[in-house]
Design brief:
The chain is of the alpha/beta class. Helix content is 33%, strand content 22%.
Length: 249
């Protein structure tokens, strides 16, 4: 079987897709992290620099993709679809090169949940690479997915907020059962997506069954009254092991 590649930001969705792939014995041999400069329509943006530390705990080599600022090249008349295609290009180029190095790519994991904008582009890319797309979160119930992540042992930290009801106190907060219950209430009151699919919040997985050692952080908090993020100043692997080497020898 040709080796698999996991699209990996370090956030909960891409981490869950990776975990499920390993759990089902798909031979993931590389993680690929895109590091957008500025805003992106296609990719998870915050805390991607920490992905390399998470990859060390996971035990799978990581490939970094560092495109130019997506916004800087945008034409005033460029539509959203054209921008999405342009943002996808650096990732596809990197996977083509990786396929040459690995002797082919059998499949690609992705953490798409509800965004057809992302999913259709990644699916098209996989077709061109002759690779299977594995997207285990796609069109699944958000609350059930979040509950499954916690039940599996994921430790999830909020690293960015940008929605009514998500104030500074959410930054650095662990998503546990109590937090999920609050998010369900905010969903009813303000329309906040329980998984943050609309960009309401972003996360970083700091421990899980696919990791040998937990990720530990030092950070500063920035909040302007409407949105905010943690700025990570240091990241390292702590002691102890939540991981069970899922799908790895």
């Amino acid at each position: 079987m040709d080796p698999w590649v996991a699209l990996f930001s370090g956030g909960k969705d891409s981490s869950w897709a990776l975990y499920r792939a390993l759990e089902s014995d798909r031979p993931v041999e590389r993680l690929v992290t895109v590091h957008p400069t500025g805003d992106s329509y296609m990719y998870h943006v915050p805390a991607t620099e920490v992905a390399s530390v998470a990859a060390e705990s996971i035990g799978i080599p990581l490939v970094d993709v560092r495109p130019a600022d997506f916004g800087a090249a945008a034409d005033a008349e460029e539509d959203v679809g054209a921008r999405g295609d342009r943002e996808l290009a650096p990732l596809e180029d990197a996977l083509v090169e990786l396929a040459d190095d690995l002797g082919g790519i059998g499949g690609v994991t992705a953490g798409a949940v509800e965004s057809s904008y992302q999913a259709t582009r990644i699916e098209g890319m996989c077709d061109r690479l002759d690779a299977t797309l594995f997207a285990p979160l796609w069109q699944r119930d958000p609350r059930s997915l979040a509950t499954a992540m916690l039940s599996a042992g994921f430790e999830i930290t909020v690293v960015r907020v940008a929605a009514r009801g998500l104030e500074a106190s959410w930054l650095g907060r662990t998503l546990d059962a109590e937090a999920l219950a609050e998010l369900a209430g905010l969903s009813e009151e303000y329309g906040v997506h329980v998984l943050g699919e609309g960009g309401e919040f972003e996360t970083l997985v700091t421990d899980g069954p696919h990791m040998d050692r937990p990720l530990r952080l030092e950070y500063e908090t920035r909040y302007d009254g409407t949105r905010g993020a943690i700025e990570i100043t240091d990241a390292w692997l702590g002691e102890g092991a939540n991981g069970r080497n899922v799908g790895r020898s």
